[in-house]
DNA sequence: CCGGGAACTGGAAGCGGTTCCAGTCCCGTT
DNA sequence: AACGGGACTGGAACCGCTTCCAGTTCCCGG
């Protein structure tokens, strides 16, 4: 906290006065806008340096009607959803892109009513210049809020049931299809899917990809075993799957967390991977590399997803009209399949 | 974006006018401050509801000199440090605590010069009501910035070489000692440590804990093999350790990521865990439970760490003077040791 | 019926910038 | 020497909300 100087931060008025110019000129000099003579511009800069003046962002925000911040809101019924390393990677990308545009990142975990209310206030009260929305579920109240927001909104992944104007998504269906086709191409026939939450578009799309691949190969898809994208959920779903279809020889899990859970269940059930059951995940999180056996998985460019969301938002804030983006996925073959 | 109504957000003036009161009264009614008659208070509330009025946070911030936001800054020479799931958990805790105080969370990944500069501006320009600082390294430029900041600063973990006035930390040395003592108690004698970066206080403290335990048992500690807290680093360090001391029978890794890397190296080297080499980690991240074998590790309450940092900051912002906190750790025994 | 204090009220002064706009200045032209 | 125009300049009006303070109003005991 403050040590010596109880002196307030210098204001632009003080800078102007010391530099012997008016506040307007000082302001222009600061933002190096035109209509400032060389001499005065330098005078202002000198005083700024000498006083260590830093403009008050709040005042600037009020005057320009721009907050200088973008919000990333992660929906979920439970804050622990955020513990998924997926989001951390998104943030790394988004943060870098926002930094380029000199925007700050506000992070909102909209996991409670209170949290959603705060997001609503943010949206309606212009508490940020724009918002990135992720992890929406079916009938997510945030979707409605975003609809009415008079503020740029970019979706990360698409919400269920509607296609927003601006979004960045991975090719979930395509990746899932590729994963399933790979399993089929290795001679697996009784291929099941541990699908993610079907109240999310990612879960649905990945299931569609699985189903299309199966149908394309002329094999009846097995009924999806739904889990919640967590390791524990994947483990439980795998157990359920073994109970119902003990003869599966291939499993496409809709994300790596679930795949790792499945791996654990299979190990405990004494079913060697990939000898008896081949497993493919989705995401290519760090855990995929570390799993035993290392996980064959569909890599989606998560950091790029964050980066592109942020760039899209920056473009929107800048008055442009960017087009939605679908990022490609790529199968990474390791030992599990 | 805006669909129909090009109508601006209503302002407090409009609310006041429609409610037939002055702006001051409207303001007081809004913040339910005293000195407003029941009738007018209700009139204001009615209009607010009917207009869907939301106060402009920027204007409020300017007037109250409070931004309504707290920043969490994560230092690092590379944004990828943030991919460590550790931070996500901190955020879950911090976010919840800030929500209670109705503060927003700004996340700053100070991984570049530009990033640090922005943090500096935040600190000097009063862009937030307070700051939480994490992952500082030796001679971290952020430490100096924090020093001069006329703003509450809470440290997550202690910086190297100095003890700040306000911080929340885990009992790193104690946890490391417990881990090492556990290994010793199980009959291991050639116990080594894969220490984390020794330019961080956490790395040092955990090394001290290891050393103290060894000395306490009358055994010469092995020279620490330093790694960077990553899985890859842990794997490499383990390889180096095997090359130098092929006869180790116990390893304390200063975090779970490194422990998992060590597990991988040991598996590849054909050294069964825990039969030949017992491994203990630190953190108890999700990966510990999933590792093969499941990792015995020192759990630190990461979410609580975030929560307590945020609470401490809230207290500081509220003018109180909280005391530093050291959170206890606890050994979680699984199969790897 | 009056005095006095408590409860309310609203005008006005900020908070610290940005930006519009009406002037000034300074030159090169005519 | 008067003139037109572009480059500068600074006064003043915001941006939208909080809060101080000087009044008003209201109510109650005397």
From TrEMBL, chains A, B:
One of the Pfam families matching this protein, by short name: Peripla_BP_3
Record-linked SUPFAM superfamilies: lambda repressor-like DNA-binding domains, Periplasmic binding protein-like I
An annotated Gene Ontology molecular function: DNA binding
SMART domains for this protein: HTH_LACI
Keyword NADP attributed: no
Domain HTH lacI-type: from-to ranges: 10-64
Protein name: LacI family DNA-binding transcriptional regulator
Keywords annotated in UniProt: DNA-binding, Transcription, Transcription regulation
Gene3D superfamilies: 3.40.50.2300, lambda repressor-like DNA-binding domains
């Amino acid at each position: 906290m403050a040590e010596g100087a109880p002196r307030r931060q210098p204001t632009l008025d003080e800078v102007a006065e010391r530099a012997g110019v008016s506040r307007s000129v000082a302001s222009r000099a600061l933002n190096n806008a035109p209509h400032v003579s060389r001499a005065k511009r330098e005078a202002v800069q000198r005083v700024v340096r000498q006083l260590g003046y830093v403009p008050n962002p709040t005042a600037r925000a009020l005057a320009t009607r721009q907050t200088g911040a973008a919000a990333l809101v992660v929906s979920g019924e439970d804050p622990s959803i955020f513990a998924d390393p997926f989001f951390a990677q998104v943030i790394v990308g988004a943060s870098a892109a926002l930094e380029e545009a000199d925007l700050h990142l506000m992070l909102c975990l909209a996991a409670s009513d209170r949290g959603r209310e705060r997001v609503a206030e943010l949206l309606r009260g212009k508490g940020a210049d724009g918002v990135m929305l992720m992890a929406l579920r079916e009938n997510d109240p945030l979707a409605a809020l975003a609809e009415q927001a008079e503020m740029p909104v970019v979706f990360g992944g698409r919400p269920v049931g509607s296609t927003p104007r601006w979004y960045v998504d991975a090719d979930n269906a395509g990746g899932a299809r590729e994963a399933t086709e790979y399993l089929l191409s290795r001679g697996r026939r009784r291929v099941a899917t541990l699908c993610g939450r079907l109240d999310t578009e990612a879960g649905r799309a990945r299931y569609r990809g699985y189903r299309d691949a199966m149908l394309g190969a002329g094999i009846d898809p097995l009924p999806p075993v739904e889990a919640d994208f967590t390791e524990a959920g994947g483990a439980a779903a795998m157990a359920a799957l073994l109970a119902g279809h003990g003869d599966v020889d291939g499993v496409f899990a809709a994300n790596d967390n679930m795949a790792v859970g499945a791996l654990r269940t299979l190990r405990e059930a004494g079913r060697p991977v990939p000898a008896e059951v081949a497993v493919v995940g989705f995401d290519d999180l760090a855990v995929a590399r570390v799993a035993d056996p290392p996980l064959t998985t569909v890599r989606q460019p998560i950091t790029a997803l964050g980066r592109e969301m942020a760039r899209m938002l920056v473009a929107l804030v800048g008055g442009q009209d960017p087009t939605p983006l679908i990022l490609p996925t790529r199968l990474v073959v390791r030992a599990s399949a």
